[in-house]
Design goal:
about 200 residues, alpha/beta, Rossmann fold, 9-stranded mixed beta sheet, 3-stranded mixed beta sheet, 12 strands
């Protein structure tokens, strides 16, 4: 079962609807037993880092997610805040993240003469830095929808999958083994998002 983790922060219905459009079914749940038996995990998220981690802690989901991903090697896709909480920590808060890979989260930082607005909002290009089945068979020019003020920094360059430029290049997705994260919103990105979710569901 494709399991969308419900921890009170995310566009759950939009993701489930897009998965249905590509011919698959998913379950939105916070039930530990159902997450334990998931074949794929999607971790969405909109909001603040500390609140997200606290919600996962309160639901008893932190350890089951770690065990399923790190030990059982269940494929997981983090979306936006869901991607960020998969890292070790964030400048946005004080709590530790899930620590699924060696990365952290920082706020966009610009010199005073830069007029770029924060949050970074709207459509933008993503550029692949390595081959991965997540983008298999897709167009060379990929466009996705973003809404965020913080971004991931990977300590291991091998984990970096795509970059996007907003004043400077930042990590817009990462991939290592069964662990995937995207800063953009595939559920709001029309064909590009549908193709990405289809690859995640069918190729891993």
């Amino acid at each position: 079962m494709i399991t969308i983790v419900d921890y009170g922060m995310g566009n759950l219905g939009s993701i489930a609807n897009m998965i249905k459009k590509i011919g698959h079914y998913s379950e939105i749940t916070s039930d530990i037993s159902k997450i334990e038996t998931a074949s794929k995990i999607i971790l969405p998220g909109v909001g603040s880092f500390d609140r997200a981690i606290k919600n996962l802690e309160d639901l008893g989901l932190v350890e089951v997610l770690k065990e399923n991903v790190l030990q059982n090697k269940i494929p997981i896709l983090g979306i936006c805040l869901g991607m960020q909480i998969m890292t070790k920590n964030s400048e946005e808060g004080e709590k530790n993240g899930l620590g699924l890979l060696d990365a952290y989260v920082q706020r966009f930082k610009y010199q005073e003469d830069r007029k770029l607005k924060i949050p970074h909002m709207g459509w933008n290009l993503v550029t692949q830095q390595k081959d991965n089945l997540l983008f298999k068979g897709m167009e060379s020019e990929l466009r996705y929808y973003f809404v965020h003020s913080y971004h991931v920094v990977c300590n291991n360059v091998e984990d970096l999958l795509t970059t996007t430029n907003y004043g400077y290049d930042f990590v817009s997705s990462f991939a290592t083994d069964n662990i995937f994260g995207v800063q953009f919103h595939p559920e709001k990105s029309h064909k590009f998002g549908m193709d990405l979710l289809k690859n995640f569901v069918e190729k891993f």
